[in-house]
């Protein structure tokens, strides 16, 4: 697995893929989808697909691929090696969603939540397989959100393919287990060798599991909090763990789409009481009731000053 | 931004400015353009031998608080290169902005513009005030303000004394000059300002018509569709930012622009109008004598709906027919 393309720019989403085995273009194939790194506040989320001819299912089962969570890191690496050896009939593709992509998607003006991001990534990978001529007949997915809704959505998008969305799919279907191993191995490698684009000077890489409840992760987040910028791009800003820390320890930053309420916000925004519109002097300038700045200046947000 | 300010400074001066000096500031940090040397040299050659020239010639520009002629309150100005030039200070100030300056963060995203300004605007209120006495006075005795002592420095601006004749009558006794405020001269001077502003408004394609709030909004009207009056009124509004309200009204008359009555000033009547129970009748109605049936018919009783309609307050409402009459064209100048 060559992580080079992602490591060159780890701020964006990146796709890595194996060669498409020739048999997959001619024989009916099954495909498994799984993800790794959904929960952590640190590092990327990796989506993986694995596909092989339906006829090779048993061989895959015999290679003892299992749910990546039940395996040690060494075992996972081992199994990934095996999958790589079987490249004559097993193909895989990965989508690495950088923490920066996750942050900016979830925090943008029109919010794009993690479930939608997950679904779209999964759909993108299935489409990738189809575009490359893989004869897909069955797709197995570990669920994200309500299973039946997701299944419906995928079935409609890919007519003619039998879609099975099932919780714990990674322990039920070997092809999903294989996908989960690919995803997990990629995530582990990316996190271990994360290239910090920020100049942090001898960064402490002992950040634990990256999950919000890990004390090591928490300590690391506290250590690398910048009052102005918050965190390096390695951190998912949209996670409440990161947000709470930034709110309490960092400088307050206001955005124009902040959902603020209360009197303070109203005052800051210069909102008027509803009642003021009914009084006689409605619409006048508070500072000087007789003087109204010309629209040339107000349109351009230009003001006179009395002090610097 | 620079573009607009370029013309703002440009249009408000009587004699043409070749190039205004635009200083941009971030907070208290102050950057000057490279043009400074060039401008200063130029100014030095143009400088009259001023009597009040006590300021150092090459001293740094200084911010001063002076009386804003329009609001009568303090506003920030800048006197440059030894008080020979006056600049007004405007801040671009919008919510949710901040600056990264080098390795620091500046919390407000303000951008200060320091643009050339005609000192006569600031001198004018003092002359008007003393003009009420009707006497010719030396101008340095007039331009005095306890609240803003820096105002006397305005007189050392290159163009102050040389352009006073635009707004005053002058008398010379020996080497001393005496001035008296002249409303007519001032009106003519301001009218010129408005006309010059109109020229720049057209040149810069400033939208002077109906308010367009969005910058992405594409105007269907082309600039040529704007009436001269729109430009005049807009320019008048701009100049009014630099003069008192009284003067602004007088200028409007001088420009022969009718005053606009904004609809929000018309308040609804405090009391409901009392309706008489008698039907409305013409005071003198001769038609009834001409008609064949001389006997007047008794007034018809109104239905409940008609009664309630009659009670509606129609004050300030246009009659239905007015919407169908041809539009009265605004007088073109």
UniProtKB/TrEMBL annotation, chain B:
UniProt domain Rnh202 triple barrel: residue ranges: 55-118
Pfam families documented for this protein: RNase_H2-Ydr279 (PF09468), Ydr279_N (PF17745)
Record region (Disordered): 259-333
Indicate where this protein resides in the cell. Nucleus
What's the domain of life for this entry? Answer: Eukaryota
Tell me which GO cellular component terms the UniProt record holds. nucleoplasm; ribonuclease H2 complex
State if Nucleus is listed as a keyword: yes
Q: Name one GO biological process term.
A: RNA catabolic process
List UniProt keywords, sorted A-Z: Nucleus
Give the protein family: Belongs to the RNase H2 subunit B family.
Protein purpose: Non catalytic subunit of RNase H2, an endonuclease that specifically degrades the RNA of RNA:DNA hybrids. Participates in DNA replication, possibly by mediating the removal of lagging-strand Okazaki fragment RNA primers during DNA replication. Mediates the excision of single ribonucleotides from DNA:RNA duplexes.
Complexes and interactors = The RNase H2 complex is a heterotrimer composed of the catalytic subunit RNASEH2A and the non-catalytic subunits RNASEH2B and RNASEH2C.
> What is the protein name given in its UniProt record?
Ribonuclease H2 subunit B
Source organism (scientific name): Dicentrarchus labrax
């Amino acid at each position: 697995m060559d992580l080079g393309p992602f490591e060159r720019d780890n701020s964006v989403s990146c796709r890595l893929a194996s060669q498409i085995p020739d048999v997959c273009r001619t024989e009916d194939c099954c495909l498994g989808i799984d993800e790794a790194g959904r929960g952590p506040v640190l590092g990327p989320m990796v989506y993986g697909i694995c596909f092989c001819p339906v006829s090779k299912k048993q061989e895959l089962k015999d290679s003892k691929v299992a749910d990546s969570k039940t395996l040690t890191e060494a075992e996972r690496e081992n199994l990934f090696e095996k999958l790589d050896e079987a490249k004559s009939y097993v193909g895989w593709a990965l989508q690495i969603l950088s923490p920066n992509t996750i942050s900016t998607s979830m925090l943008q003006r029109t919010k794009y939540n993690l479930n939608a991001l997950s679904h779209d990534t999964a759909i993108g990978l299935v489409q990738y397989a189809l575009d490359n001529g893989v004869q897909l007949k069955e797709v197995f997915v570990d669920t994200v959100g309500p299973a039946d809704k997701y299944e419906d959505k995928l079935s409609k998008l890919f007519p003619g393919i039998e879609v099975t969305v099932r919780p714990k799919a990674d322990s039920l279907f070997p092809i999903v287990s294989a996908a989960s191993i690919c995803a997990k191995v990629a995530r582990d490698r990316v996190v271990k060798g994360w290239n910090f684009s920020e100049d942090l000077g001898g960064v402490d890489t002992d950040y634990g599991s990256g999950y919000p409840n890990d004390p090591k992760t928490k300590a690391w987040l506290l250590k690398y909090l910048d009052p102005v910028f918050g965190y390096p791009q390695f951190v998912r800003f949209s996670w409440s763990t990161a947000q709470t820390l930034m709110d309490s320890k960092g400088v307050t930053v206001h955005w124009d789409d902040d959902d603020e309420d209360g009197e303070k916000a109203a005052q800051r925004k210069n909102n008027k009481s509803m009642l003021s519109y009914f009084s006689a002097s409605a619409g006048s300038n508070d500072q000087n009731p007789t003087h109204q700045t010309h629209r040339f200046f107000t349109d351009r947000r230009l003001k006179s000053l009395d002090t610097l | 931004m620079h573009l607009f300010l370029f013309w703002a400074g440009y249009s408000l001066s009587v004699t043409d400015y070749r190039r205004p000096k635009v200083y941009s500031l971030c907070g208290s940090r102050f950057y000057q353009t490279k043009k400074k040397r060039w401008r200063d040299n130029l100014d030095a050659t143009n400088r009259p031998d001023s009597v009040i020239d006590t300021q150092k010639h090459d001293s740094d520009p200084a911010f001063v608080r002076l009386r804003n002629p329009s609001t009568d309150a303090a506003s920030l100005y800048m006197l440059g290169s030894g008080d020979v030039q006056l600049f007004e200070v405007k801040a671009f100030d919008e919510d949710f902005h901040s600056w990264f300056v080098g390795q620091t963060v500046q919390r407000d995203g303000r951008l200060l513009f320091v643009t050339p300004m005609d000192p006569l605007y600031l001198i004018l209120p003092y002359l008007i005030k003393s003009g009420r006495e009707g006497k010719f006075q030396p101008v340095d005795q007039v331009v005095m303000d306890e609240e803003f002592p820096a105002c006397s420095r305005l007189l050392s601006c290159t163009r102050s004394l040389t352009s006073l004749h635009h707004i005053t009558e002058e008398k010379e006794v020996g080497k001393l000059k005496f001035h008296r405020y002249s409303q007519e001269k001032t009106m003519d001077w301001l009218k010129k300002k408005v006309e010059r502003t109109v020229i720049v408004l057209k040149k810069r394609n400033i939208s002077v018509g109906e308010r367009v709030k969005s910058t992405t909004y594409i105007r269907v009207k082309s600039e040529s569709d704007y009436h001269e009056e729109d430009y005049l009124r807009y320019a008048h509004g701009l100049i009014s930012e630099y003069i008192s309200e009284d003067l602004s009204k007088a200028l409007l008359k001088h420009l022969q622009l009718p005053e606009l009555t904004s609809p929000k000033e018309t308040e609804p009547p405090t009391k409901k109008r009392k309706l008489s129970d008698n039907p409305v009748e013409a005071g003198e109605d001769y038609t009834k004598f001409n008609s064949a049936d001389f006997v007047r018919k008794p007034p018809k009783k109104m239905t409940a709906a008609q009664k309630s309609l009659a009670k509606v307050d129609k004050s300030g409402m246009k009659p239905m027919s007015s919407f169908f009459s041809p539009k009265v064209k605004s007088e073109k100048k």
